[in-house]
């Protein structure tokens, strides 16, 4: 086989490999930022304006956590303890909060669109509209 054909075939393989791996390189900073925010939240319970999209916070102890203005879209918060957490203006759309404890949590102006709240304790929580929930009391 002529060397120019081999060179061309090798270049095509390298190009194909680079093309296939490109999405992973582009996603790395997003994943790194998300994991830095996760670490900050779990260590300090304070993460204002953090990017926690699709975060796995199942059964996490987030009592008194400050999550104001955070992005928690599609996050897994099943069974998490968010007692007295501050989630004002957070985006919890599509988040899974089944069985979570949200008692006395501040949810004013929080986006709960399509959030799963089955069996969630919302007793005393300040809801997005400012009302106080009696759900789970």
From TrEMBL:
Name the UniProt record assigns to this protein: Pentapeptide repeat-containing protein
Pfam families attached to this UniProt entry = Pentapeptide
Q: What InterPro entries does the database record attribute to this sequence?
A: 5peptide_repeat (IPR001646), Pentapeptide-BTB/POZ_domain (IPR051082)
Classify the source by domain of life: Bacteria
